[in-house]
Design a protein that fits this description.
3-stranded parallel sheet, 7 helices, binds zinc ion
Length: about 270
């Protein structure tokens, strides 16, 4: 069996979200084949208001998602460690509702995705046109402010793809160094970790999230990191982890972390 360059992939979806292919079992089997020792399923949290079948499963489906992952965890226990996670959304107007919804399941890991600025899903390819009518620098400022506010809610363990705003290649006209430092400081104070996410390589920006300078700022504040490929197709599990390892080393990281029952349960050395 090949040995993956980083042994844990802590961000993957399933077809339940409506914009991914493959069932949980296929992701697990592909992960074993890729030499991963541990995976965390982090399908998108059902919307608390309304429904978009192209973005998340329906609320009624959540118990089946949980059952499915826990059954796979038992079945494949000798072959791979499987954790139960969720990618929640940060929506400032729904913080109490989000807190209540997250408390109903014993998650191993909750990711705090910032995918919306106001009502605009800025990373949704179906809403790409909205970028034309926005000032890119203002969008970046709003995004980083939301990211810090999300960490401060205490709702989330790990902030995934922490500079997702760059996804389509829009660049602000101001230097981001201060946003990076301010945000890293807030992450350290609020004790969230950050995710190095290789999916950006497969998007127009063609870069890992976060940018190396952001990662260096995070390292200065000793913010822990986890790693995820953010797979929406089983073939992508553990993808480009050799590049993630290289980036982490360049930023000065020596370990990544994994979560269990919403606490850091292990540190994995970067080989
Ligand atoms: Zn998704
Ligand atoms: Zn996401």
């Amino acid at each position: 069996m090949p040995r993956a360059p980083i042994l844990a992939d802590a961000h993957m979806h399933t077809s339940r979200c409506g914009h991914a292919v493959g069932e949980a079992r296929e992701y697990a089997l592909a992960s074993i084949a890729a030499g991963l020792a541990e995976i965390t399923f982090t399908d998108h949290q059902p919307f608390l208001r309304g429904r978009d079948p192209g973005l998340t499963m329906a609320a009624e489906e959540l118990p089946r998602y949980v059952e499915e992952v826990l059954a796979l965890k038992d079945e494949l226990a000798g072959k791979i460690r499987i954790k139960l996670g969720l990618e929640a959304d940060y929506l400032p107007e729904l913080v109490p509702e989000t807190r209540a919804a997250l408390s109903t399941v014993p998650w191993d890991l909750v990711l705090g995705g910032v995918h919306f600025i106001g009502a605009w899903g800025f990373d949704d390819p179906r809403q790409l046109e909205e970028w034309e009518s926005r000032d890119v620098s203002d969008v970046y400022r709003a995004y980083f402010a939301d990211l810090r506010a999300a960490a401060k809610t205490g709702l989330f363990d790990v902030m995934p793809h922490p500079d997702l705003v760059k996804k389509f290649g829009h660049r602000p006209s101001y230097v981001l160094q201060e946003e990076y430092s301010k945000t890293a400081q807030v992450f350290a104070e609020t004790k969230v970790a950050v995710e190095v996410n290789t999916a950006g390589l497969r998007k127009p920006i063609a870069e890992i999230y976060p940018h190396i300078e952001f990662l260096r700022a995070l390292k200065r504040f000793e913010v822990p990191v986890s790693v995820g490929a953010d797979s929406h197709d089983p073939k992508d599990v553990g993808r480009d982890f050799e590049l993630a390892r290289e980036l982490l080393k360049r930023a000065g990281y020596t370990h990544t972390v994994v979560y269990e029952k919403r606490k850091i349960s292990d540190e994995l050395p970067l080989r």
